[in-house]
Amino acid sequence: MSDRILHHLAMPGESAEYRTARNKLLTEEMALRRQIESVAALRRALPAGGAVAQDYVFDGDHGPVTLQDLFKPGKDTLAIYSFMYGPEKEQPCTGCTHFLDGLEGMVQHITQRINLAVVAKSPLPRLLGLARARGWRSLPLLSTNGNTYDRDYFGDSSSLPAAVLKQQKFKAGEEWDMPMLNVFHRRGQVISHFWGSELLYVPAEPGQEYRHNDALDSLWNMLDLTPEGRGDFQPQLSYSSRSNWGQTAQAPKTEKNKATLEEANAAVAEGNYEEFLSFCTDDTEWTFVGDRTLKGKEAVRQYMATTYIEPPKFTVINLVAEGEFLTVVGDITLMDEDGNLVHHSYCDVWRFSEEKIVELKAFVIKNLGQG
Known about the structure:
Blueprint: H1 16-44, E1 57-60, E2 63-66, E3 77-82, H2 94-104, H3 107-110, E4 115-120, H4 124-134, E5 141-143, H5 149-152, H6 162-167, E6 181-187, E7 190-196, H7 218-223, H8 252-269, H9 273-277, E8 280-288, E9 292-295, H10 297-307, E10 313-322, E11 325-335, E12 341-353, E13 356-366
Parallel strand pairs: 3-4, 4-5, 8-13
Antiparallel strand pairs: 1-2, 3-6, 6-7, 8-9, 10-11, 11-12, 12-13
């Protein structure tokens, strides 16, 4: 630019003081643009990283899927984001969740050029339940439950070197899921690590968070353009209103009810019926329309013991929340006493109070074509 004159804009009503300051900032923005591209060029020029030692098996929506399976024809790069939502967490990480809210809208574009996956340690039914609750329809969610991917590629803190643990001020004996982004590249049948968001494990600058994925995060980039900046704002799982749309968002209580049902369903899928019952009130009442009514937690316990010979497999097709009610439409497969799998369609209407299941009204229809 130094060999030619740079012409500037003039916004309506601006002062000379403003234009001088803005032109000075513009010069810095131009330098930052060059620096961003310079860093990107260094990143692209990285030599091949370490070869991946095993073909990790993940739990996907259509069954087990290997790392090799995640590479689609014609695309030799794979980005995997580790989402902080392990089975021990009552709620997903708010930082990860807001990031994934934004990434959801970009999936169709990103996957035109590369492969993408989002992984977490929670069982897959729990992840898919969260996806339904948040309206994620495109994010390719996988469970690392049962493999060592997160440990090996620093999606948790369990294998961090002692010096890094000390540097990051992790307490001894504590283990954390971490929001690590890793990029892999395939040459022939060999998959190698290419890049990871290692800035996550570098001490933050004074007054800043780690900012390891900021280049991908539209929220923080937008706030950086405003007079208020980021301030002390922290994303939440839900808000009382959306003033920019003039709409009322779902109340936090509704979101909690959704989360309760997702956790309860995940427990059933694992055969942990007592955990499911912990989400019910003692006087919970279940009505199977045209069949029977169960009154009290003990009656539900006995029903599960006799009906769920094996943990049922169910798919939620749609979920609608309104006040204290959740209406769920889906399919469920049960094993009968003869060991046969019997498929049903259902519509469940759940009522909650204080985040506990008070009542269920279930409409269940055995699918046609079965004995």
